[in-house]
Design brief:
31% helix, binds coenzyme A, alpha/beta, five-stranded parallel beta sheet, 2 domains, binds adenosine monophosphate, GMP Synthetase, Chain A, domain 3, Rossmann fold
Length: 635
């Protein structure tokens, strides 16, 4: 029997010789033409993984399993408490649906390199659409259903999709969200016009098909099945937009080959999965977690994946997750800590657990935001299994730091996502770009090259890619997270260094919200802060100063501001609190002191900045926060 390699040895191997490490990992996937080298870094930081390899992502997700005799195994379980429906798709069935839908798209002119925007709820057709694009070598761009028309329009104009795949509605517990008005609104705002839209008409809402370019799903789904188009490893598989520091989202571009190798490797080594087992990521296909761990990684490894359309509580109760885990025999489950806080709030003693048989459930993974030690402890006690916090980003596509359950379980330190995953050389830097000693806080960066699977660039924006991630610390990728690494090599992620906040595991830009507030005709200036929230981790709070001469009631202005953010960014922004203030605290050079205000709102101790223009104003701000229910006493 071969010796099992320790985390330490494997990690060192991945850092000392990434070429050898990843070329070996690449042998675990199917290539039409196998790569002879792992990394071409001649044009760094625009690295090319497996540059002479040719593959197809959909082939690796479906066809290979059918070819190897696993056609009857469950590939996708659709479980939708909000519609009261469930359906299991075998690998064979999914391959048939995808190859026909891809055939239908091809017949309408979609080919390799074309972009296809997917704006869909958590229904099987969304997965079929993604895989059909991959089959053709077309580039999908999935947009989360909780974004409003304006956000959708920005993405349409940037990606310039030839087609849109969508549905008549999404369902938020008991509320039907009509998609047609949202999409029509977006198309009115955008300058680019897709050639056609394909609609799934759900029972809960009809579609107006009066435009010729609006097609029924069935019209496309009945196409002639097509085979997988070989693509270069470095060709783009998808664009996924994520919040940047302004209202303009960043289009993260993922390649085919690097993504395939890294994701399959991660499911085995980080999550400890083996083919045939059931993996469930309770997220949404609109987020990176949904791309990587609802759709791609479980299918690459030949696992069964679950597409769950519902919430952790209220569908029907706080036992919703336990029911799914027990009914479908889930081995490893991944969600955001906020979901567990929601369950804990509804069912503090986890009484619903007793009704279910969870014997197959062996590990819970949490990510998307910092897992607070209280939530980890509650989950560990309730479930009696390892609860693993792990850290990553849309940009990386797979975990940067984790307790790699498929390699060796390390001791858990609650509040830390454990150690760097093989492939990632994580460092902490000070302002001058020098590495700090262990325990010292600084900017967290990753030494280049990034491992395969991480972003290739930003869509049509190589310059933005360099500027956002590579410029501040030459030779490193800037994560925009801050924290420290302790003497045992454990990474501690404490905050962001930019204006991104994390609301219920959803990444949002306060800068983007400020742009929306500033556009209100009565607003002179504003600040949006992420303040602590017991359920969602953080929520946005807006403060606005009105233009001179505006004498309308503050309440009605605040209501308009809240509606404005909901209409322009979407309900997912969870922007529900704002106040009018006479002025905002600033430095003498005019910079708004957002950090100081955040400390006041969260009840943290802080020093009055030496550069503040007028310290008295902090008292006024504290009063405003108190009236809004914030500014708790320091703990
Ligand atoms: N389409 C339309 N609206 C959506 C939506 C979608 N796909 N997703 C969320 N929304 C709406 C919600 O209905 C809510 O609207 P409301 O203001 O009218 O109540 C708003 O956007 C905010 O959504 P959310 O922050 O998710 O709050 P919630 O109260 O609906 O649910 C949790 C809170 C914690 C239960 C839920 O966020 C959750 O399960 N999160 C964990 C899993 C996860 O998604 N993680 C993401 C990355 S891993
Ligand atoms: P997203 O791109 O939406 O996945 O968000 C990525 C950001 O979420 C990271 O840069 C962190 O700020 C935060 N994040 C994700 N996972 C964790 C974690 N386990 N601990 C702390 N922060 C996290």
């Amino acid at each position: 029997m071969s010796k099992i390699e320790s985390y330490e040895d494997l990690y060192q191997r991945s850092i000392e010789n990434p070429q050898k490490f990843w070329l070996q990992a690449s042998q675990d996937v199917h290539w039409f033409q196998s790569p002879s080298v792992a990394l071409d870094a001649r044009d760094a930081p625009f690295n090319r993984w497996f540059p002479d390899g040719s593959t197809n992502t959909c082939y690796n997700a479906l066809d290979i399993h059918v070819a190897e005799g696993r056609g009857d195994q469950a590939a996708l379980v659709y479980d939708s408490p909000v519609t009261g429906s469930k359906r299991i798709f075998s690998y064979g069935e999914l391959q048939d649906l995808v190859s026909r839908f891809a055939g239908g798209l091809k017949a309408r002119g979609i080919q390799k390199g074309d972009r296809v925007l997917i704006y869909m709820p958590m229904i099987p057709e969304a997965v079929v659409g993604m895989l059909a694009c991959a089959r053709l070598g077309a580039v999908h761009s999935v947009v989360f259903g909780g974004f409003a028309s304006n956000e959708l329009a920005t993405r349409i104009d940037d990606a310039k999709p030839k087609a849109v795949l969508t549905a008549s509605c999404g369902i938020e517990t008991d509320r039907v969200i009509l998609y047609q008005p949202l999409l029509v609104g977006a198309l009115e705002m955008s300058s680019h016009s897709p050639e056609f839209c394909v609609w799934v008409e759900r029972e809960q809402a009809a579609v107006d098909f009066s435009e010729e370019s609006d097609l029924h799903w069935a019209e496309v789904a009945g196409g002639e099945p097509v085979n997988c188009t070989p693509v270069a490893s470095t060709d783009p598989l998808y664009i996924l937009y994520t919040s940047g520091t302004t209202g303009i989202p960043k289009g993260v571009v993922r390649d085919n080959g690097g993504h395939l190798v890294a994701l399959k490797w991660s499911l085995r080594n980080v999550y400890g999965m083996t083919p045939g087992e059931v993996f469930w990521a309770a997220s949404d296909i609109g987020w990176v977690v949904g791309h990587s761990y609802i759709v791609y990684a479980p299918l690459f490894l030949g696992c069964t994946t679950i597409l769950y359309e519902g919430k952790p509580v209220g569908t029907p109760d706080a036992g919703a997750f336990w029911r799914v885990i027990s009914e479908h025999g889930v081995s490893v489950f991944f969600t955001a800590p906020t979901a567990f806080r929601a369950i804990k709030r509804e069912d503090p003693s986890a009484s619903h657990l007793a009704k279910y048989n969870l014997t197959k459930f062996r590990t819970l993974f949490l990510a998307g935001e910092r897992a607070d030690p209280d939530t980890i402890e509650w989950a560990e006690e309730a479930l009696s299994i390892p609860v693993i916090d792990h850290w990553w980003q849309t940009e990386t596509g797979w975990p940067i730091a984790a307790n790699c359950m498929g390699i060796e379980k390390l001791a858990v330190k609650r509040g830390s996502p454990t150690r760097a995953v093989p492939g990632y050389k994580v460092v902490v830097l000070d302002d001058s770009g020098s590495q700090v000693s262990s325990g010292q806080t600084g900017a967290i960066a990753i030494s280049l090259p990034l491992p395969p699977g991480c972003l290739k660039t930003l869509w049509n924006n190589d310059e933005g890619f360099q500027k956002s991630y590579m410029q501040r610390y030459p030779g490193f990728y800037e994560t925009a997270d801050a924290g420290h690494i302790d003497e045992d090599g454990y990474i501690w992620i404490m905050s962001r260094t930019d204006d991104i906040i994390n609301v219920a595991g959803h990444r949002l830009s306060t800068g983007g919200m400020e742009e929306v507030l500033s556009g209100h005709p009565d607003v002179a200036e504003c600040a949006v802060l992420g303040v602590g929230d017991a359920l969602k981790g953080q929520v946005p709070l807006g403060l606005v100063v009105l233009k001179a001469g505006v004498n309308r009631a503050n309440d009605s202005i605040v209501r308009e501001l809240i509606k404005r953010v909901r209409d322009r960014i979407g309900p997912v922004a969870a922007f529900k609190t704002a106040a009018v203030v006479k002025r905002l605290p600033k430095t003498r050079s005019g910079k708004i002191l957002r950090g100081t205000m955040r400390s006041i709102a969260d009840g943290h101790e802080f020093k009055i900045p030496a550069t503040i223009d007028d310290p008295e104003i902090l008292g006024e701000i504290r009063e405003v926060f108190k009236n809004l229910g914030y500014a708790k006493s320091p703990k």
